[in-house]
Specification:
254 residues, alpha/beta, Rossmann fold, Dihydrodipicolinate Reductase, domain 2, 2 domains, seven-stranded parallel sheet, four-stranded mixed sheet, 11 strands, globular
Length: 254
């Protein structure tokens, strides 16, 4: 499966590494805002032994239609910014290219745009597309239904420079019907990302915890989504939508 990557910051580079090391996917190109490394080869740039093309391109030097006509891909993975969709969204949807966004937060206007674009292709967006955090979310929602009387508190930990409450924590609170005042944030060192849901019962507590050890975890989630979406109908999906069938299978083994 041919992959195009939008964004080449810390997370984008980690995602590119995961794609390059997976024999079932081919990294066709990376588009970044900066001209640094323009026309370079991604494997060489990252010091990875790979024969994949993976050309680094600058967004300022070409249009999306030129790019997608010359270098077609099956899926676009976006780890750039909230405005990244402006570059490729319309052209990708016209060509029914799957779109996977790993951008953590969007405002409602962008989400409305996703809904419109998803009439022409498959789009996935979740605040955090690691498999582990979405397993946590599905499991926590199941426990919430089983024990609605439990007290719930959410703890999120990230690197020292991160200022806002994480989009993942906000999404957890929303899905579990928890007030935002029940979110605690920790900022220290270089923590990639940790989320914990604490369930308080009268005589016991249960903690469900997920920790991202390295940003490559986002790449694993993106490739899982790319594989799962290829056989899906057009529409807007979340990672939970892709995981739910597996939970159903485990609960009803054949």
């Amino acid at each position: 499966m041919k992959i195009g990557l939008i964004g080449f910051g810390r997370t984008g580079k980690a995602v590119a590494e995961v794609v390059l090391r997976n024999p079932h996917f081919c990294l066709e190109w990376v588009v970044r805002h900066s001209k640094i490394g323009h026309n370079s080869n991604v494997p060489e740039y990252l010091g990875i032994d790979s024969s994949e093309p993976g050309t680094i391109l600058c967004k300022q030097t070409l249009t999306a239609d030129e790019l997608l006509d010359r270098r077609p891909v099956d899926a676009i993975v976006d780890f750039s910014s909230v405005t990244g969709i402006d570059f490729y969204g319309e052209e990708a949807a016209k060509r029914e290219i799957t779109i996977i966004s790993g951008v953590s937060q969007y405002d409602e206007s962008v989400l409305d745009r996703f809904k419109k674009l998803s009439k022409g292709t498959r789009i996935l967006w979740s605040p955090n597309i690691t498999l582990g955090i979405n397993f946590l979310m599905v499991a926590a929602k199941a426990l919430r239904q089983i024990a609605p009387q439990a007290n719930i508190h959410i703890i999120e930990e990230h690197f020292r420079e991160k200022q806002d409450v994480s989009g993942t924590a906000r999404r957890l609170a929303e899905e579990l019907d928890v007030n935002s005042t029940e979110i605690s944030s920790v900022r220290a060192g270089g923590i990639v990302g940790t989320h914990e849901v604490l369930f308080g019962f009268p005589f016991q507590t249960l903690r469900i915890r997920h920790e991202s050890i390295a940003r490559q975890a986002f790449g694993n989630g993106a490739l899982f989504a790319a594989s799962e979406l290829m056989d899906r109908e057009r529409g807007l999906y979340r990672m939970e939508d892709l995981l739910q069938p597996y939970f159903a299978q485990s609960l009803n083994p054949t």
